Amino acid sequence: MQTTANSIDAPVRRTFLPFNQPDIGQAEIDEVVDTLRSGWITTGPKTKEFERRFAEYIGVRHAIAVNSCTGGLHIALAAAGVGPGDEVIVPTMTFCATANVVVHLGATPIVVDVEPDTLNIDPQCLEAAITPRTKAVIPVHLYGHPCDMDRISEIAKVHRLLIIEDAAHAVAAEWRGRRVGTLSPATVFSFYATKNLTTAEGGMITTDDDEYGERMRVWSLHGISRDAWKRYSAEGSWYYEVSVPGFKYNLADLQSALGLHQLARLEVMVQRRTELAARYHAGLCDLPEIELPTVRSGIRHAWHLYVIRLRLERLEINRAEFIERLKSEGIGTSVHFIPLHRHPYYRNRFGFQPADFPVADAAYERLISLPLYTRMTERDVDDVVKAVHRVVQRNRR
Ligand SMILES: *Cc1c(COP(=O)(O)O)cnc(C)c1O
Hints:
Layout: H1 2-8, H2 26-38, H3 45-58, E1 62-66, H4 69-79, E2 87-91, H5 97-104, E3 108-112, H6 123-128, E4 134-137, H7 149-158, E5 162-166, E6 174-175, E7 178-179, E8 186-190, E9 203-207, H8 210-220, H9 253-264, H10 266-284, E10 290-291, E11 299-300, E12 306-310, H11 319-328, H12 344-350, H13 358-364, E13 367-370, H14 378-395
Parallel strand pairs: 2-3, 2-4, 4-5, 5-8
Antiparallel strand pairs: 1-9, 6-7, 6-11, 8-9, 10-12, 12-13
Helix pairs in contact: 2-9, 3-9, 4-5, 4-8, 10-14
The chain binds pyridoxal-5'-phosphate.
The site of pyridoxal-5'-phosphate (PLP) has 14 residues, from helix 4 and helix 5.
């Protein structure tokens, strides 16, 4: 009977709701065209201006624009001298880039479990993983919810660890009234197409440390001394020196053109995300089959992702099937993330077992990221809510 009912009912949406869409306004488009016509398309005045305004927004002395968050994390580690023999602690519940960059430097990523509510790195697991070889820790503010930075900073101080924050999800997030980007020696943001602020591809490193900031800047462009990008301008000179074997991770003015206007709209965009998240909460909180995202007190959530967890013991279908049913209703979703310990490279190299990460592993089976972006309407959110209700009603135990 259920199958018949399903085939008769029209899906909630006739037009498919994509999981994510960027929000590019006319100002961004005009600025890109202006850049193309200006005669200076790669790193130059617009990138400098984007760095200046980003530093001002975050409330930090230095912002170094890079072509990705991955590149930024790589630079932050390299400039701190992390290399072979060193260990860097990372949470398993993250995107692979957080750990891949540690491997790129010949250091060893030490993968640890997460807290059950936020799925952020568990400070107890972090502390237990510290050895005399531990150089750094990379906390990830998962989904835009800040990590417990008080405890992490305390542990880092006692054990003399460098903190490099992966804030790919957390632009505009706050920890106890302080903006993410001001809390540690280095914080790295992502401006990838799906992120809260986008330049298509891009990233930013923030720091208050003049000397570390200067080293990261040098590492970001071939290891060439200050303002290397100026060497083709009237102010520049043909002469330069390479002091370290740096990377090629600079951000182009074409991309910063987008960033300048995205940054100007960031607060409005985050407010919109917050409203849409509240609407999800109101629409889904009566379903005992669904666990909603945690918001601890004393933080500002950046709402990069709205991630629900299925209570599988109350359902007759698994997560993959749930995602398929939502797709049939016209709703695009995703999963953030397949934990590091489940990926063949990390599993095989370190011999990880699911039981080594009980919290992340159990959570992973239940995660579904719902669409959340500024171009969504209230109607769109209501369609997703309706679709989730339908799938639950048809498949509850
Ligand atoms: C997107 C993302 C990255 C990588 O960002 P890029 O700018 O694409 O390099 C790193 N960490 C996390 C948690 C991410 O979600």
